[in-house]
Amino acid sequence: MSLDTVRWELLDIADGDRILDLGCGEGRHAITASLLAKSQVVGVDLARDDLKVAHSRLSDFSSPECTFICGNGKHLPFADSTFDKVICAEVLEHIPDYEAVLEEIKRVLKPDGLFAVSVPRFFPEWVCWRLSREYHEVEGGHVRIFRSRRLRNAVEAHEMQRVSRHWSHALHVPYWWLKCLFWNTADDNPLVRTYHRMLVWDLLEAPWLTRTLDRLLNPILGKSIVMYFVNR
Q1: Closest CA to 104 of 158, 39, 27, 149
Q2: Res. 63 pLDDT band, cuts 50 70 90
Q3: Which residue of 27, 59, 98, 228 could cross-link 92, Cys pair, CB 3.0 to 4.6 Å?
Q4: Is residue 110 part of a domain?
Q5: Is residue 217 situated within a structural domain?
Q6: What's the CATH code of the domain at 45?
Q7: How far apart are CA 111 and CA 83, in angstroms?
């Protein structure tokens, strides 16, 4: 079970697809994509420790077509028009020169290929910044808060057309607000720890109550905004 931000039915993973998970972290989307169809998935990230975790998680499955490499999103080691689908989830808010990353995504994505991108939604993220300076000033932290229109315009400037949009992880918003509010003592704070246990239970058990609540709250308070574009 993984905490997926994208909706797989909108990406329509098919046999034979070549998929790039850019900024793959510990491999949550890359591994899931490799299990959905007989596709070839590559996860790219700069963080070697995260890639070690991704490799370890991959070993739990029966040899899916998934590889992980250390690389820079501004200089991808792939030929033009290599991938049918590109996923870039919760990455661009960390990168000062995110336009260069979008240029590389455009370059390696095939014509009519699909691009799924997510960033933190403006209001929940704005509250986190107000509650804790450390939240976004840690090494590798967030360098900007995106408005959805800004992100859409930036992607569409590269001749990609938005075809769908949704929000994800509404139930995670109160957790991050609590964590930011009690930043220096969050690990020991009973409210933060109790809410975290609820999120773990929700992830592992997927109970009807929390799944329904999350779905209903996502349009109002989803932590992430997720957009899907077709490369024209």
Answers
A1: 158
A2: low
A3: 98
A4: yes
A5: no
A6: 3.40.50.150
A7: 9
CB-based contact 74:100 (threshold 8 Å): yes
98-131 pLDDT, tens digit per residue, is 999 999 999 999 999 999 999 999 999 999 999 9
Task: Report how far apart the first and last C-alpha atoms of the chain are (Å, whole number).
Answer: 34
Domain housing 163:
8-121+136-169+223-231
**Percent of the chain whose predicted confidence (pLDDT) is above 70:** 99
DSSP one-letter code for 177: H
The C-alpha atoms of residue 118 and residue 121 are separated, in whole angstroms, by 9
Give the Cα separation of 134 and 179 in Å (integer).
11
Is residue 100 one of the residues assigned to a domain?
A: yes
CA distances (Å), origin 132, targets 85, 139, 148, 180, 188: 36, 14, 23, 5, 17
Residue 151 placed within a domain: yes
Q: φ, ψ for residue 142 (rounded to 5)? A: -75, 135
State the Cα–Cα distance between residues 217 and 20, nearest whole angstrom. Answer: 30
120: left (phi over 0), alpha (psi -120 to 50) or beta: beta
Q: 60 in helix, strand or coil?
A: coil
The answer to which of 21-25, 137-141, 156-160, 175-179 has the lowest mean pLDDT is 137-141
Q: Tokens 């999120």 map to which residue?
A: 199
Number of domains in the chain: 1
pTM for the full predicted model:
0.95
